[in-house]
């Protein structure tokens, strides 16, 4: 495992950095390391858009305050990109291209030397077209040799509020590839997920299938969810779905990607 001291030395070798900061555990660790190594030469930037779930910005602000790093907010407009709206398997490429275009311009305008992301070693084994966008913008990944489990251990060592935070990817990740992404669908997914979380299910996804919302919950919560099935399906319907079901298969991150065959060049 790469040590905290090693990571600080690597980031400290840069004169100044902008961290793509969602407030999740990965970007929080990178932001904390950047602040420890560079102090006021490190800037955390959080992008907001219709694809970001409500409450995520508040969480990012809390983590940034805990770290002590300077924190700014920018708006991104991935929905203006046809490739993102089309929602092909390369959707994340267009999302990250928008993000890094905005951050690169900010870094250039302010004189920051490098862009950092929280991509970790586990991301290399999944379908991640966003990494191609990062490469095109010369984004540096300090955690690329660090597994997700090790990142969480670093977050605990650093006493970050996000150490145990579940992954919360773009809301468009709930929409099957090939189904167009639009603002109203993103709002509906967000309403549905917040409604079920309010019932006591912190780790979940609402998969969007037109008029049907299909809920996936963590394996540890599946029996509880099935016991409260009527209450949960009523909440999903109140969010705008005509039909609602609870998937009997527990939630697994990256399920939509499992069927994809990656081109050799992207491996």
Structural class by sheet pairing and helices:
alpha/beta
State the total count of DSSP E strands. Answer: 7
Q: Indicate the percent of residues in helices.
A: 40-55%
The level 1 CATH classification of the largest domain is Alpha Beta
Examine the coordinates and then state which fold CATH places here, giving the name of the CATH topology of the largest domain: Rossmann fold
Helix/strand order, N-terminal first = HEHEHEHHEHHHEEHHE
**What's the structural domain tally?**
2
Sum up the overall morphology in one term: globular
Q: Mean pLDDT score, rounded?
A: 94
Per CATH, which architecture of the largest domain? 3-Layer(aba) Sandwich
Instruction: Please give the alpha-carbon distance between the first and last residues.
Output: 23 Å
Q: Whole-number radius of gyration?
A: 19 Å
